[in-house]
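Title: Comparing notes on inverse folding

I've been comparing how different people in this forum approach sequence design from structure. To keep things fair, I'm posting one structure and asking everyone to reply with a full sequence. Here's the target:
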């Protein structure tokens, strides 16, 4: 049986690769989710793929298959949806439901444990669940399904009602109808979901007849259990299957047998064609993850951005000028404007804060780490170009344009972010080098201390404009793996120091809990967020430097 791994998928054709990210303007509120989705390996990797390095991967835990667990978690989350009422769906309410008998096993909390490194105020648990399904389909060989985001996490458990093996066909049919799936789609969704994974004896000994730890009974024979294909259909039709929900010794628990045969095998015979199977799975799995409460409006599908900048540093230095550094991400490869990363170079041009054009070019270099390239699901590939320069604080910066040159043809394409350039505000600067975080032991826990410095242009300092830190504080929830976020607001204090038209403000030694490591913050001037979604991770690795 052919295996499907990340390296092989890097060469797969993808219909979505040819789509243009029309209408994208940077920055976008879903930029962080796009990073988690697109940046799987190489330079600047996010590594969401680490939980599904192969379709059968399970962190060496006997019987575990993360791809199957991720899909199961998503389905159990939407299983109590009422589409007619507009309630439930993919809303992460299952976080509060893991002790229910209808949600047996550790799959759900294992899934949320992997999410802990990616969950943030910009990446809801429910959006990460959608990505988990999208990623699992990619790694296991299923057709591409789009990722839409914007889901809002539930704050409490939803109603009960996940389908269970002992229930009869009318009950299952009614439950799937409530979720928005008719009889044919119910058959398809169960077949698609059960092409991967297994039944764990520790959770369902009444089915497997073996409750030993690590014992599993796969839905398909052999290697097919780790490939998204229609073997589960063929084995059922041939009456030669390892699926104990079809051929178990207790017919009351043979729920797949009842569902698959609900229309006298008409749908299962159609699904025996693999192209038809993949197409139908693509449709019903997409609908599954896009089932959301009526108040949620999902984004358009997330498409890899052709050009995307990242600003690493915009801050005063001791000389009174502004350090400005970052990098540009350029998509290259098959079905893109740029087939060859080695044939590219890039530079920036910029305007001052008043919109005046500067003739100065900000040059870039390609990083040496990982050859300055990265890759994602479905063959997305990127090359990066870094810049590091200093700007005059008297004139500052208002926006920049990106220029990408194809060296072999000596042609340059200018990118202006929809016409107005890539915006930069320099009225408030985050002084990252003068900021730091530390943790000290206090008995069985650790106390955290956070110091943040900001430089505010003197023209923005009038007393009626308060400068505040909005800190995304972690709040633990009993019985739930992932914390909630609560905004903690702290006022900056003037230091009395000025430097080249800027006044320095500081929050010194703010208490933060140990569980807030890795969290984010924003800086708000008056009612305007001027510095947005900054991580404190780097601040734990440095001491606060002096300036001026």
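Reply #1:
Here's my take.
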């Amino acid at each position: 049986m052919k295996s499907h791994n990340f390296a092989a998928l890097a060469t797969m054709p993808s219909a979505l690769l040819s789509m243009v990210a029309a209408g994208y303007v940077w920055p976008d509120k879903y930029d962080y989710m796009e990073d988690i989705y697109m940046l799987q390996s190489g330079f600047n990797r996010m590594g969401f793929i680490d939980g599904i390095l192969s379709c059968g991967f399970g962190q060496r835990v006997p019987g575990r298959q993360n791809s199957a667990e991720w899909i199961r978690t998503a389905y159990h989350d939407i299983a109590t949806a009422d589409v007619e009422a507009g309630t439930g769906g993919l809303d992460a309410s299952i976080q509060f439901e893991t002790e229910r008998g209808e949600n047996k096993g550790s799959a759900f909390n294992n899934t949320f444990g992997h999410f802990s490194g990616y969950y943030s105020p910009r990446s809801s648990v429910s959006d990460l669940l959608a990505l988990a399904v999208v990623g699992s389909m990619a790694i296991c060989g299923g057709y591409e399904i789009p990722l839409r985001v914007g889901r809002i996490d539930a704050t409490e458990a939803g109603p009960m009602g996940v389908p269970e093996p002992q229930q009869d066909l009318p009950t299952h049919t009614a439950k799937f109808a409530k979720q928005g799936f008719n009889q044919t789609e119910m058959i398809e969704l169960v077949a698609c979901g059960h092409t991967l994974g297994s039944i764990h004896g520790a959770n369902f000994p009444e089915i497997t007849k073996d409750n030993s730890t690590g014992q599993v009974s796969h839905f398909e024979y052999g290697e097919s259990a780790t490939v998204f294909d229609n073997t589960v259909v063929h084995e059922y039709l041939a009456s030669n299957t390892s699926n104990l929900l079809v051929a178990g010794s207790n017919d009351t628990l043979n729920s797949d047998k009842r569902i698959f045969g609900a229309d006298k095998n008409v749908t299962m015979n159609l699904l025996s064609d693999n192209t038809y199977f993949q197409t139908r799975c693509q449709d019903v799995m997409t609908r599954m993850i896009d089932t959301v409460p009526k108040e949620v409006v999902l984004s358009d599908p997330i498409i890899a951005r052709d050009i995307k900048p990242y600003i690493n540093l915009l801050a005063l230095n001791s000389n009174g000028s502004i350090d400005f550094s970052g990098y540009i991400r350029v998509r290259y490869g098959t079905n893109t404007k740029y087939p060859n990363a080695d044939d590219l170079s890039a530079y920036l041009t910029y305007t001052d804060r008043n919109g005046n054009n500067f003739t100065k070019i900000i040059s870039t270099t390609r990083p040496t780490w990982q050859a300055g390239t990265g890759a994602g699901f479905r063959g997305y590939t990127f090359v990066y170009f870094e810049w590091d320069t200093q700007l005059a604080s008297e004139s500052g910066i208002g926006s920049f344009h990106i220029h990408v040159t194809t060296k072999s043809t000596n042609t340059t394409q200018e990118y202006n972010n929809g016409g107005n350039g890539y915006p930069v505000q320099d009225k408030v600067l985050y002084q990252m080098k003068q900021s730091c975080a530390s943790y000290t032991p206090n008995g069985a826990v650790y106390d955290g201390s956070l110091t943040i410095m900001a430089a505010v242009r003197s023209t923005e300092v009038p007393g009626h404009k308060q400068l505040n830190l909005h800190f995304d504080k972690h709040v633990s929830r009993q019985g739930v793996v992932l914390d909630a976020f609560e905004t903690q607001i702290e006022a900056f204090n003037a230091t009395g120091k000025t430097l080249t038209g800027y006044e320095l403000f500081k929050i010194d030694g703010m208490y933060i809990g140990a569980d807030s490591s890795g969290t984010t913050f924003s800086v708000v001037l008056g009612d305007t967020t001027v510095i947005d979604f900054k991580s404190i991770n780097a601040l734990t690795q440095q001491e606060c430097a002096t300036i001026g």
